[in-house]
């Protein structure tokens, strides 16, 4: 299924689609003149040109402005309306933050939320000729702390651990042609790792008697064929896979980072024996869970070796440079010896998740935080998470949802019962939306609910990590009575019954740049960098954690604490870094001697 490589929606592919990336007309309108003067319908000249999907703050966009709030886009597309009754669906993968879209002056979409995309059936707005004009207006507050913004800085220039902003269109724009009665969405949820799978297919334009046919295959072998009746726009059911390998060698068809087996899925919408629509998808068979000490993958203990992924590139910011860069990011994580990533304050590109599915990485899915707790900020966070789960529920790589980080957005969590209930509410909502994955309520400290206690401990001394977490007894004491970052590790006694992950640690900076943020410590050279990083990883391996997440994969602006620099180049030989991550201490010593010799 090579179409997955470039398709912006890899979990539901139709053949007739077209990218609308490229040069668009562009205007900055912070005075909000365009709304009053109706730029969506008047022949106003937009004075600039922008390369979509790169945000205007980025060099790759061709704009490179430091701060904007209101922006307009326009593009005239050469496309005639379909003459066979099919529909044209326009898709925006992400627009930050409030977006309105017009086609030929007809308003076709209004969307709030910067991380998850939206779509619109624009067929009835298409002009009879060849030229179709698409206009987009986006508003992204530069200062609001009620808006989920993650690590997008509200100050200029970027400071401490926050980065340059990403406004407007920042992921793929595309359209597809589809039948009026069509498959709208698909959700796969493994019930067991050995062959029971729940399928939920959303259908639009269905009539009584319509059905959905699903065929699952692997390497040419048919594992299941089933027909589900459509009722009220949905076809739902549990599919039993039949194959001798599932009985004799069930792990051969199970998904894991070490063996990322994917099963191809063909979906057809059928009416009276005729096929109305068809699409391709894929499935990974795996289950996740916990006992009181360990993370479980496919029912077995699985130590997590994660790395923090900021998903930020110097020339394109939160937009990936291209699809190849997303694949290369996954390959680098694997080459370094990690078996997963924690997305940090950004929702992953669907194509990145595809490569995690295909090449083998587990993912903790984070979302951008607001920094003030109000009814509006909480509502926006809830809405964002509903969209994230709906979009990404079928990716086998995603094993956990992380709704809050370090009490961002709930700053008085330690004393405010309302904020504690907000965290609990989101944990329960995510469990209800998706019972197949784990949920961390507030990662870092101040645990009030969730399936894992996440601890962020940036102790400069590896010995301190061992002293705090080096045995089950020490870990129990740290969770019950400990503090990290000046805050209690746990606010709820239920923390004693769930596993603990060192979900941020390290952060060692090795950079000679004058503006390097020194919050986690700076080392002078490669030898000191390797020694310090190796000591931290050894402490994480020697402690009683169910896993760890190192900060971080790449340098990002002034936060230069990556194992790789911002160009994705390793700061030490990658074989050595891999041995450190994997805790191969004999190999570490052999490779380390090469660095010492090189430095004289």
TrEMBL record:
<feature type="domain" description="Glycosyl hydrolases family 2 sugar binding">
    <location>
        <begin position="18"/>
        <end position="173"/>
    </location>
</feature>
<dbReference type="Pfam" id="PF02836">
    <property type="entry name" value="Glyco_hydro_2_C"/>
</dbReference>
<dbReference type="InterPro" id="IPR008979">
    <property type="entry name" value="Galactose-bd-like_sf"/>
</dbReference>
<dbReference type="InterPro" id="IPR006104">
    <property type="entry name" value="Glyco_hydro_2_N"/>
</dbReference>
<dbReference type="InterPro" id="IPR051913">
    <property type="entry name" value="GH2_Domain-Containing"/>
</dbReference>
<dbReference type="InterPro" id="IPR006102">
    <property type="entry name" value="Ig-like_GH2"/>
</dbReference>
<dbReference type="InterPro" id="IPR017853">
    <property type="entry name" value="GH"/>
</dbReference>
<dbReference type="InterPro" id="IPR036156">
    <property type="entry name" value="Beta-gal/glucu_dom_sf"/>
</dbReference>
<dbReference type="InterPro" id="IPR006103">
    <property type="entry name" value="Glyco_hydro_2_cat"/>
</dbReference>
<feature type="domain" description="Glycoside hydrolase family 2 immunoglobulin-like beta-sandwich">
    <location>
        <begin position="182"/>
        <end position="286"/>
    </location>
</feature>
<dbReference type="Pfam" id="PF02837">
    <property type="entry name" value="Glyco_hydro_2_N"/>
</dbReference>
<feature type="domain" description="Glycoside hydrolase family 2 catalytic">
    <location>
        <begin position="289"/>
        <end position="444"/>
    </location>
</feature>
<dbReference type="GO" id="GO:0016787">
    <property type="term" value="F:hydrolase activity"/>
</dbReference>
<comment type="similarity">
    <text>Belongs to the glycosyl hydrolase 2 family.</text>
</comment>
<dbReference type="Pfam" id="PF00703">
    <property type="entry name" value="Glyco_hydro_2"/>
</dbReference>
<protein>
    <submittedName>
        <fullName>Glycoside hydrolase family 2 TIM barrel-domain containing protein</fullName>
    </submittedName>
</protein>
<keyword id="KW-0378">Hydrolase</keyword>
């Amino acid at each position: 299924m090579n179409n997955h490589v470039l398709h912006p929606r890899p979990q539901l592919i139709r053949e007739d689609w077209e990218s609308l990336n490229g040069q668009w007309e562009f205007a900055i309108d912070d005075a909000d003149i365009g709304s009053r003067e109706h730029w969506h319908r008047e022949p106003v000249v937009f004075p600039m040109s922008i390369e979509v999907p790169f945000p205007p703050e980025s060099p790759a966009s061709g704009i490179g402005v430091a701060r904007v709030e209101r922006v307009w886009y326009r593009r005239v597309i050469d496309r005639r309306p379909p003459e066979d009754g099919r529909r044209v669906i326009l898709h925006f993968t992400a627009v930050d933050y409030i977006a309105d879209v017009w086609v030929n002056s007809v308003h076709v979409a209004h969307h709030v939320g910067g991380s998850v995309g939206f779509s619109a059936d624009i067929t009835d707005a298409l002009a009879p000729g060849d030229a179709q004009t698409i206009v987009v207006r986006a508003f992204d507050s530069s200062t609001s702390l009620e808006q989920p913004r993650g690590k997008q800085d509200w100050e200029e220039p970027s400071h401490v651990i926050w980065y340059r902003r990403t406004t407007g269109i920042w992921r793929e724009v595309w359209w597809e042609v589809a039948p009026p009665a069509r498959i709208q969405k698909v959700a796969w949820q493994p019930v067991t790792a050995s062959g029971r799978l729940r399928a939920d297919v959303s259908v639009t334009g269905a009539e009584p008697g319509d059905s959905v046919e699903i065929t699952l295959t692997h390497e040419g072998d048919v594992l299941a064929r089933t027909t589900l009746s459509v009722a009220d726009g949905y076809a739902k059911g549990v599919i039993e896979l039949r194959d001798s390998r599932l009985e004799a060698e069930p792990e051969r068809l199970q998904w894991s980072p070490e063996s990322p087996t994917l099963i191809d899925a063909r979906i057809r919408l059928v009416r009276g024996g005729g096929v109305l629509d068809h699409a391709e998808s894929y499935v990974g068979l795996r289950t996740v869970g916990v006992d009181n000490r360990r993370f479980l993958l496919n029912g077995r203990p699985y130590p997590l070796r994660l790395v923090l992924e900021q998903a930020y590139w110097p020339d394109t910011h939160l937009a990936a440079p291209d699809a190849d860069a997303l694949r290369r990011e996954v390959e680098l994580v694997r080459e370094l010896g990690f078996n997963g990533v924690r997305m940090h304050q950004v929702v992953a590109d669907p194509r990145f998740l595809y490569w995690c599915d295909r090449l083998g990485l587990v993912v903790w899915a984070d979302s951008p935080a607001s920094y003030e707790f109000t009814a509006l900020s909480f509502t926006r966070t809830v809405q964002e998470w509903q969209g994230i789960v709906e979009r990404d529920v079928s990716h086998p790589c995603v094993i956990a949802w992380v709704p809050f980080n370090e009490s961002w957005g709930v700053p008085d969590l330690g004393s405010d019962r309302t904020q504690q209930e907000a965290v609990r509410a989101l944990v329960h909502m995510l469990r209800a939306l998706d019972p197949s994955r784990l949920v961390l309520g507030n990662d870092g400290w101040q645990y009030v609910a969730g399936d894992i206690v996440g601890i962020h401990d940036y102790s400069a001394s590896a010995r301190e990590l061992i002293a705090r977490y080096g045995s089950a007894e020490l870990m129990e004491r740290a969770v019950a009575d400990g503090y990290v970052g000046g805050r209690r590790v746990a606010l709820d006694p239920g923390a004693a019954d769930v596993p603990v992950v060192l979900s941020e640690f390290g952060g060692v900076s090795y950079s000679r740049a004058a503006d390097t943020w020194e919050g986690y410590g700076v080392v002078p050279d490669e030898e000191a960098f390797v020694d310090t990083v190796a000591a931290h990883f050894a402490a994480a391996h020697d402690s009683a954690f169910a896993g760890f997440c190192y900060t971080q994969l790449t340098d990002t602006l002034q936060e230069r604490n990556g194992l790789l620099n911002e160009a994705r180049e390793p700061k030490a030989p990658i074989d050595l870094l891999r041995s450190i991550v994997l805790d191969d201490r004999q190999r570490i010593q052999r490779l380390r001697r090469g660095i010492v010799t090189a430095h004289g």
